[in-house]
Amino acid sequence: MSLAGLLRRLGAQVTGRIWRLGFASRFLLMTLLYSGMALRRLQLTLREIYFTGVLSLIIILVSGLFVGMVLGLQGYDTLQRYGSSEALGVLVALSLVRELGPVVAALLFASRAGSAITAEIGLMKATEQLSAMEMMAVNPIARVVAPRFWAGVVSMPLLAALFSALGVIGGYLVGVRLIGVDEGAFWSQMQAAVDFRQDIMNGVIKSAVFGAIVSWIAVFEGYDAEPTAEGVSRATTRTVVTSSLAILAADFVLTAFMFRGI
Amino acid sequence: MNRAAIDLWVGIFVAIGLAALLFLALKVGNLSASDVGETYVLEARFDNIGGLKVRAPVKSAGVVVGRVGEIRFDAENYVALVSLRIDRRYRFPRDTFATINTSGLLGEQYVGLDVGGETEMLKDGETLKKTQSAMVLEKLIGQFMFNKAAEEDVKK
Question: Is the separation of the CB atoms in A239 and A221 below 8 Å?
């Protein structure tokens, strides 16, 4: 292949990416513009909260508990070398509330709920249900996309809070019940170190942003999927990969802004 | 899945989600601590505040009675101007002594208030007259080494 051909392929790739990003942004704007119906007909959004939030509960709760228990074990192992095993509560709570809760819950949410949203919308497109809706003068963005988007934005902070809470309980079970760190020091040092606004609210803001990112990518990939079986499967994979990367990148940016002064 | 069941499950989900947030706020965080109470302001000037930070605790007899509100530099006298937000429930005499202490060897720094014997109490916005600066570890080590060297010289 000639040099010009290679360059042309590269150019096509880049323009394609930028065009898609622009389309995704316009799509997000449309979703926000047509959100009126998702709020007016709350039942639609509640249904989606059931599918994305409630059905993700088990995986979130169990993973939160285990992550907290592992933090308890690993944290104790390191802290007791420096004779400060009482700081275990601080370590477990801060790492969960600030980072692990929002990030891991969002990653699980992307693979559990995001992929399902993409597959559902992609299949609706492949079976021409979306076109049928348009034919009946029902706007598919208002009827299908917006409720799913808002359901993700609402569910994510709740799931992250549950993840962190279960993680702290897991750390407590291993650290205090199993290993025998002093219970009073565990809780009081934790309470002295964790600040409500600085740590907990920032975690909640983070998880809401992650919820918006995951839902946006999921509904967009579904809406943009090639209307074939293969296309839907590719779109589902792209949702998980893209949203995981986006979560981690956004986490860095948000952390840099939130905890800069410390 | 009918509508009532979905409503019920979403209700349960939101309720336990909020309960988890409440657990984090009250049991893990320190929202229940005395931060929210009404406060009044006392000013104190220190020659050196070391590593004192805004929102560091103000303690008297080891009990937290307030927080550091603002730290400024007084360009006329070249000292640090620290405003302390003290809980309205607690009053301190005029000759209260403010020191900057460190909890533990390398812990966080806080302002300690040692109470004097006067009967007249400090009012909102007044300045603590007597203060003691933070101990700077490097200076201490420097002094120690200097003294050691001086002793050695004497022995010779």
Answer: yes
The single-letter DSSP state of residue A226 is -
Picking from A54, A97, A190, the nearest residue to B13 by CB comes out as A54
C-alpha closest to that of A259 among A160, B52, B32, A251: A251
In a domain, A22, yes or no: no
Tell the burial category of A171 from Cβ atoms under 10 Å away from its Cβ (0-12, 13-18, 19+). Answer: buried
Question: Is A223 among the domain residues?
Answer: yes
Q: Which of A128-137, A175-184, A194-203, B105-114 has the lowest mean pLDDT?
A: B105-114
Interface test with A, best of B1, B2, B7, B10 (most A CBs within 10 A): B10
* Domain range annotation of chain B: 1-32, 36-142
Closest-CA distance, A94 to chain B, in angstroms, reads 9
Q: Mapping DSSP to helix (H, G, I), strand (E, B) and coil, where does residue B85 land?
A: strand
Mutate to test the interface with A, among B24, B53, B106, B110 (most CBs of A within 10 A): B24
Residue A8 lies in a domain: no
Report pLDDT digits (tens) over B27-64. Answer: 877 765 545 568 889 999 988 888 787 778 888 888 88
- Residue ranges making up the domain that contains A245: 34-258
Confidence of residue B106 (pLDDT cuts 50, 70, 90): low
* pLDDT bucket at B125, cuts 50 / 70 / 90: confident
More confident residue, B135 or A256: A256
CA distances from B110 to B60, B91, B96, B139 (A): 10, 19, 16, 19
Q: Phi/psi of residue A20, each to 5°?
A: -65, -40
* Number of domains into which chain A is organized: 1
Beta-carbon pairs below 8 A across chains A and B: 78
d(CA A108, CA B138): 48
For residue A16, tell me if it sits in a domain.
no
Instruction: Determine the residue type at A258.
Output: M
For the full predicted model, state whether its pTM sits above 0.95: no
Cα separation values, A169 from A92, A109, A190, A214, Å:
10, 21, 12, 27
The interface predicted TM-score (ipTM) is: 0.80
A125 near A222, Cβ under 8 Å? yes
